[in-house]
């Protein structure tokens, strides 16, 4: 499981964008978003750099924690 801090995730639309970004690299990923905390948990076997890049390409700054 990846645990990510996401910056700039302000609304449900952002949360949807981040979800879709992760699903572009792993369509079967289980994703839990805590918008208030700005964190995402993603159950995926995909290497984290690919996931981070996909989120950055969607316009958000993401870091592992
Ligand atoms: Cu938004």
Overview of this structure, please?
- With 65 residues, the chain is α+β, with helices and mostly antiparallel strands.
- The protein has a single domain (2-38, 46-64), classed as Alpha-Beta Plaits.
- The protein has helices at 12-25, 48-57, and strands spanning 2-7, 30-34, 39-43, 61-64.
- It has a four-stranded antiparallel sheet with strand order 2-3-1-4, with helices on one face.
- Strand 2 and strand 3 (39-43) form a beta hairpin.
- Helix 1 (12-25) crosses helix 2 (48-57).
- The protein is globular, with a radius of gyration of 10 Å.
- It starts with a strand and ends with a strand.
- The mean pLDDT is 96.
- Copper (II) ion is lined by residues 10-11, 13-14.
Tell me about the largest β-sheet. Answer: 4 strands, antiparallel
Quickly name the level 1 CATH class. Answer: Alpha Beta
Identify the bound ligands: copper (II) ion
Would you tell me the overall average pLDDT?
96
The best one-word shape is globular
Number of strands: 4
**Which structural category do the helix and sheet elements fall into?**
alpha+beta
Compute the CA-based radius of gyration: 10 Å
Helix content: 25-40%
Number of individual domains: 1
Give the percentage of residues in beta strands. 25-35%
End-to-end distance: 11 Å
